[in-house]
Amino acid sequence: MPAAPPFASPQQQLRSPDGLAKAVVILLVVAAVSDLLAVLAGLNIRSLLGDVLNNGLATIDDAEADRADNLYAASGVLQLLVLLATGVVFILWFRRVRLNAEVFDASMQQMKPGWAVGAWFVPFANLVLPRRIAGGVWTASAQTNTDGSWRTVSAAPVNLWWGAWVCSSLFSRYASQQYMKAEEVQEIMDAAGRMLAADAFSIVAAVLAILFVRKLTRMQGERAALGVYPLS
Protein backbone atom coordinates (compact mmCIF):
# COMPACT_ATOMS: atom_id res chain seq x y z
CA MET A 1 0.00 0.00 0.00
CA PRO A 2 1.36 3.48 -0.83
CA ALA A 3 2.08 5.71 2.12
CA ALA A 4 -0.71 8.07 3.06
CA PRO A 5 -0.05 11.71 2.16
CA PRO A 6 0.76 13.95 5.11
CA PHE A 7 -2.27 15.63 6.64
CA ALA A 8 -2.44 19.37 6.10
CA SER A 9 -4.97 21.20 8.19
CA PRO A 10 -6.61 24.41 6.93
CA GLN A 11 -4.69 26.29 9.63
CA GLN A 12 -1.43 25.22 7.99
CA GLN A 13 -2.68 26.50 4.64
CA LEU A 14 -3.20 30.03 5.91
CA ARG A 15 -0.42 32.51 5.30
CA SER A 16 -0.28 35.95 6.83
CA PRO A 17 -0.73 38.83 4.36
CA ASP A 18 0.76 41.34 6.83
CA GLY A 19 4.22 41.58 5.27
CA LEU A 20 2.90 42.02 1.75
CA ALA A 21 0.30 44.49 2.98
CA LYS A 22 2.98 46.68 4.56
CA ALA A 23 4.99 46.60 1.33
CA VAL A 24 1.90 47.53 -0.70
CA VAL A 25 1.10 50.45 1.62
CA ILE A 26 4.66 51.78 1.38
CA LEU A 27 4.62 51.54 -2.42
CA LEU A 28 1.22 53.23 -2.59
CA VAL A 29 2.60 56.11 -0.53
CA VAL A 30 5.55 56.35 -2.93
CA ALA A 31 3.09 56.27 -5.84
CA ALA A 32 1.13 59.14 -4.33
CA VAL A 33 4.35 61.12 -3.90
CA SER A 34 5.34 60.46 -7.51
CA ASP A 35 1.89 61.66 -8.61
CA LEU A 36 2.36 64.81 -6.52
CA LEU A 37 5.70 65.45 -8.23
CA ALA A 38 3.96 65.03 -11.58
CA VAL A 39 1.36 67.59 -10.48
CA LEU A 40 4.11 70.08 -9.64
CA ALA A 41 5.83 69.41 -12.96
CA GLY A 42 2.52 69.90 -14.76
CA LEU A 43 1.92 73.18 -12.97
CA ASN A 44 5.35 74.32 -14.11
CA ILE A 45 4.47 73.50 -17.72
CA ARG A 46 1.18 75.35 -17.48
CA SER A 47 2.86 78.37 -15.89
CA LEU A 48 5.38 78.50 -18.70
CA LEU A 49 2.71 78.23 -21.38
CA GLY A 50 0.53 80.74 -19.54
CA ASP A 51 3.28 83.33 -19.81
CA VAL A 52 3.32 82.81 -23.56
CA LEU A 53 -0.44 83.23 -23.91
CA ASN A 54 -0.81 86.13 -21.49
CA ASN A 55 2.21 88.12 -22.64
CA GLY A 56 1.89 87.35 -26.29
CA LEU A 57 5.38 85.86 -26.52
CA ALA A 58 6.20 84.22 -29.82
CA THR A 59 8.75 81.82 -28.38
CA ILE A 60 9.84 80.33 -25.07
CA ASP A 61 13.38 80.46 -23.69
CA ASP A 62 14.95 77.20 -24.90
CA ALA A 63 16.80 76.44 -21.67
CA GLU A 64 13.72 77.03 -19.53
CA ALA A 65 11.54 75.01 -21.88
CA ASP A 66 14.02 72.10 -21.84
CA ARG A 67 14.14 72.11 -18.04
CA ALA A 68 10.36 72.06 -17.79
CA ASP A 69 10.05 69.32 -20.40
CA ASN A 70 12.78 67.17 -18.83
CA LEU A 71 11.21 67.55 -15.39
CA TYR A 72 7.82 66.52 -16.71
CA ALA A 73 9.28 63.55 -18.59
CA ALA A 74 11.25 62.43 -15.54
CA SER A 75 8.16 62.57 -13.35
CA GLY A 76 6.32 60.44 -15.89
CA VAL A 77 9.09 57.82 -15.91
CA LEU A 78 9.08 57.76 -12.11
CA GLN A 79 5.31 57.28 -12.09
CA LEU A 80 5.59 54.35 -14.50
CA LEU A 81 8.34 52.58 -12.53
CA VAL A 82 6.50 53.00 -9.23
CA LEU A 83 3.25 51.85 -10.83
CA LEU A 84 4.86 48.65 -12.10
CA ALA A 85 6.45 47.86 -8.73
CA THR A 86 3.22 48.61 -6.88
CA GLY A 87 1.18 46.51 -9.29
CA VAL A 88 3.41 43.45 -8.84
CA VAL A 89 3.38 43.58 -5.03
CA PHE A 90 -0.33 44.41 -4.90
CA ILE A 91 -1.19 41.37 -7.02
CA LEU A 92 0.96 39.16 -4.77
CA TRP A 93 -0.94 40.48 -1.75
CA PHE A 94 -4.27 40.06 -3.57
CA ARG A 95 -3.44 36.44 -4.35
CA ARG A 96 -2.47 35.81 -0.74
CA VAL A 97 -5.74 37.12 0.69
CA ARG A 98 -7.68 35.21 -1.98
CA LEU A 99 -6.01 31.93 -0.98
CA ASN A 100 -6.81 32.64 2.67
CA ALA A 101 -10.42 33.32 1.74
CA GLU A 102 -10.58 29.88 0.13
CA VAL A 103 -9.81 28.40 3.55
CA PHE A 104 -12.18 30.71 5.41
CA ASP A 105 -15.17 29.94 3.18
CA ALA A 106 -14.76 28.58 -0.34
CA SER A 107 -18.50 28.86 -0.98
CA MET A 108 -18.17 32.64 -1.08
CA GLN A 109 -15.64 32.59 -3.92
CA GLN A 110 -17.13 32.88 -7.39
CA MET A 111 -13.85 32.31 -9.27
CA LYS A 112 -10.85 30.00 -8.92
CA PRO A 113 -7.83 31.28 -6.95
CA GLY A 114 -5.73 31.60 -10.11
CA TRP A 115 -7.97 34.41 -11.29
CA ALA A 116 -6.66 36.58 -8.47
CA VAL A 117 -3.66 37.06 -10.77
CA GLY A 118 -5.07 36.35 -14.23
CA ALA A 119 -8.09 38.66 -13.94
CA TRP A 120 -5.85 41.73 -14.01
CA PHE A 121 -4.48 40.87 -17.46
CA VAL A 122 -7.71 40.22 -19.39
CA PRO A 123 -8.55 43.31 -21.49
CA PHE A 124 -11.84 44.98 -20.58
CA ALA A 125 -12.72 42.14 -18.18
CA ASN A 126 -10.07 43.51 -15.82
CA LEU A 127 -12.47 46.37 -15.16
CA VAL A 128 -14.92 43.93 -13.54
CA LEU A 129 -13.37 40.60 -12.53
CA PRO A 130 -10.96 41.76 -9.79
CA ARG A 131 -13.87 43.50 -8.06
CA ARG A 132 -15.86 40.24 -8.05
CA ILE A 133 -12.90 38.43 -6.52
CA ALA A 134 -12.37 41.15 -3.93
CA GLY A 135 -16.04 40.98 -2.97
CA GLY A 136 -15.82 37.26 -2.24
CA VAL A 137 -12.62 37.69 -0.24
CA TRP A 138 -14.15 40.56 1.72
CA THR A 139 -17.29 38.57 2.62
CA ALA A 140 -15.39 35.46 3.69
CA SER A 141 -12.96 37.50 5.78
CA ALA A 142 -15.76 39.39 7.55
CA GLN A 143 -17.18 36.32 9.32
CA THR A 144 -15.60 37.06 12.67
CA ASN A 145 -18.34 36.92 15.31
CA THR A 146 -17.19 34.62 18.12
CA ASP A 147 -20.61 32.95 18.42
CA GLY A 148 -20.47 31.78 14.82
CA SER A 149 -23.08 34.25 13.62
CA TRP A 150 -22.72 36.24 10.44
CA ARG A 151 -20.96 39.57 10.73
CA THR A 152 -21.89 42.20 8.17
CA VAL A 153 -19.08 44.58 7.30
CA SER A 154 -19.77 47.48 4.96
CA ALA A 155 -18.27 46.99 1.49
CA ALA A 156 -17.73 50.74 1.13
CA PRO A 157 -13.89 50.43 1.27
CA VAL A 158 -14.01 47.89 -1.57
CA ASN A 159 -16.37 49.96 -3.71
CA LEU A 160 -14.54 53.23 -3.14
CA TRP A 161 -11.17 51.67 -3.92
CA TRP A 162 -12.40 49.94 -7.04
CA GLY A 163 -14.41 52.88 -8.36
CA ALA A 164 -11.49 55.26 -7.85
CA TRP A 165 -9.02 52.87 -9.47
CA VAL A 166 -11.17 52.28 -12.57
CA CYS A 167 -12.02 55.97 -13.03
CA SER A 168 -8.41 57.02 -12.46
CA SER A 169 -7.08 54.45 -14.95
CA LEU A 170 -9.56 55.39 -17.67
CA PHE A 171 -9.17 59.13 -17.21
CA SER A 172 -5.36 58.89 -17.09
CA ARG A 173 -5.38 57.01 -20.37
CA TYR A 174 -7.66 59.60 -21.96
CA ALA A 175 -5.57 62.51 -20.64
CA SER A 176 -2.34 60.94 -21.91
CA GLN A 177 -3.79 60.47 -25.38
CA GLN A 178 -4.95 64.08 -25.49
CA TYR A 179 -1.57 65.33 -24.33
CA MET A 180 0.22 63.33 -27.05
CA LYS A 181 -2.08 64.80 -29.72
CA ALA A 182 -1.76 68.42 -28.58
CA GLU A 183 0.29 70.70 -30.85
CA GLU A 184 -0.79 74.31 -30.34
CA VAL A 185 0.09 76.18 -27.16
CA GLN A 186 -3.51 76.34 -25.96
CA GLU A 187 -4.06 72.66 -26.76
CA ILE A 188 -0.94 71.69 -24.81
CA MET A 189 -2.00 73.84 -21.89
CA ASP A 190 -5.48 72.28 -21.82
CA ALA A 191 -4.04 68.78 -22.11
CA ALA A 192 -1.60 69.50 -19.28
CA GLY A 193 -4.57 70.56 -17.17
CA ARG A 194 -6.26 67.23 -17.82
CA MET A 195 -3.04 65.45 -16.87
CA LEU A 196 -3.00 67.43 -13.63
CA ALA A 197 -6.52 66.29 -12.86
CA ALA A 198 -5.59 62.68 -13.68
CA ASP A 199 -2.57 62.80 -11.36
CA ALA A 200 -4.67 64.30 -8.56
CA PHE A 201 -7.26 61.56 -9.09
CA SER A 202 -4.47 58.96 -8.88
CA ILE A 203 -3.49 60.32 -5.47
CA VAL A 204 -7.06 59.86 -4.25
CA ALA A 205 -7.12 56.32 -5.67
CA ALA A 206 -3.85 55.50 -3.88
CA VAL A 207 -5.22 56.71 -0.54
CA LEU A 208 -8.40 54.65 -0.94
CA ALA A 209 -6.32 51.61 -1.93
CA ILE A 210 -4.30 51.98 1.28
CA LEU A 211 -7.50 52.02 3.34
CA PHE A 212 -8.79 48.93 1.52
CA VAL A 213 -5.56 46.96 1.94
CA ARG A 214 -5.21 47.78 5.62
CA LYS A 215 -8.86 47.01 6.41
CA LEU A 216 -8.94 43.66 4.59
CA THR A 217 -5.61 42.58 6.06
CA ARG A 218 -6.85 43.39 9.57
CA MET A 219 -10.10 41.50 8.94
CA GLN A 220 -8.21 38.39 7.85
CA GLY A 221 -6.07 38.53 10.97
CA GLU A 222 -9.19 38.71 13.15
CA ARG A 223 -10.82 35.88 11.19
CA ALA A 224 -7.79 33.61 11.44
CA ALA A 225 -7.61 34.15 15.21
CA LEU A 226 -11.07 32.61 15.63
CA GLY A 227 -10.44 29.45 13.62
CA VAL A 228 -10.25 28.69 9.96
CA TYR A 229 -13.32 26.58 9.27
CA PRO A 230 -16.36 28.26 7.71
CA LEU A 231 -18.61 29.70 10.38
CA SER A 232 -22.23 28.55 10.40
In short:
The protein has 232 residues and is mostly helical. The protein has seven helices and no strands.
SSE order = HHHHHHH
Oligomer: single chain
Derived structural class? mainly alpha
Number of strands: 0
Radius of gyration: 23 Å
Q: Any overview of this molecule?
A:
This protein has 232 residues and is an all-alpha fold. Helix content is 74%, strand content 0%. It contains 7 helices and no strands. The chain has helices at residues 10-13, 18-55, 62-105, 115-118, 129-141, 156-181, 185-226. The chain starts with 9 loop residues before the first helix and ends in a 6-residue tail after the last helix. InterPro entries: DUF4328 (IPR025565). The chain crosses the membrane at residues 20-43, 71-94, 115-134, 196-213. Residues 59-218 form the DUF4328 domain. It holds the Pfam family DUF4328.
